[in-house]
Automatic annotation (TrEMBL):
This is Acetoin utilization deacetylase AcuC. It holds the Pfam family Hist_deacetyl. It comes from the Bacteria. Keywords: Hydrolase, Metal-binding, Zinc. Its cofactor is Zn(2+). Residues 28-339 form the Histone deacetylase domain. Gene3D superfamilies: Histone deacetylase domain. Belongs to the histone deacetylase family. One of its GO terms (biological process) is epigenetic regulation of gene expression. It comes from Roseibium suaedae. The keyword ATP-binding does not apply. GO terms for molecular function: histone deacetylase activity; hydrolase activity; metal ion binding.
Amino acid sequence: MKTVFSPVELKHAPKNEIADGQLRPAVEIPSRAEIVLRTVQERALGEVVEPLDFGSQPLHRIHAADYLAFMESFWDRWIAEGRTAEEAFPYVWPIRSLRADPVPEHIDGLLGRYSMDAGTPIGPFTFEAAKASANAALTAAQLVKDGGEGSAFALCRPPGHHCGKDFFGGYCFLNNAAIAAQWLLDQGAHRIAILDVDYHHGNGTQAIFYDRPDVLFLSLHADPRHEYPHFLGHEDETGEKAGTGFTRNWPLPLGTGWETYSEALEEACRWLHVYKPDYLLVSLGMDCYREDPISKFRFNSEDFTSLGQRLKRLGLPIVFLMEGGYAVDALGTNCVNVLDGFKRA
Ligand code: OKP
Ligand code: ZN
């Protein structure tokens, strides 16, 4: 299986995040990608290739033009305003009785208008890295579509699944899975399924495709009653309008291990069999791991191998896209366990 990765993804190097009422060391850091890359090479998963540049058009198929313009120009504006902080955080949001429109002119208003949380810093190279990450997703999709590869791994960083049409958050700035899904549809595919196995609900991906039947979104995750993103990912969210029935969520209790998880996974697999997608995209987070510093599931490293083996049995062309996973020392092992389990099954 080929891996797609660009060193440009490492240029997003957040220092801190706001968590638990404190400025804490960031967990979504470049060493995550480095250890996964190293393990891919050590375990000889397959060739590592650099992404092609797909330009801005595939980004515009998912994200709002004003959001992309904001992301593109943000750092220059931050500097032009005379800000000296090494990274920017939003702190005020247009909730309910406030107005999302008109879009503010002030930089702090813009940050709030285009974000969902205060845990996601933007630095000087954030958007450059996010575009490289999206290009990795697109290149992996292209390898599976045209390259005679039954599967490919997009080593994406920063991740994407919390990012919506016009907001960043949850360490995500472009929705890599959504961008790749739409690209495959634009290339002639009829149906795409996205299976999100990150510990956190993929709220951005869900929202983007909520009213569409051409993308089936399935997510297994920690119950949002007890976990980030808190405001989406409940069992009763099943899609709307033409997309009714094309979103499915399996919110699972804190402490969930492979035994419980794999039962929910079997249900998700049944939906995949019925839907018969042309391609399956897997939003692959490794944060279900028992030692993950911000998560509360109980996967062992071997459980990730079982996950890969189960996905192989689906018999579908698959694009794996990396999302979360913050136990850096074990991240390479856990990620390559999925991919190698898939490859060898
Ligand atoms: C991104 B991905 C906990 C703070 C959690 C946001 C988590 C984003 C996860 N105190 N902050 O889905 O792995
Ligand atoms: Zn996560």
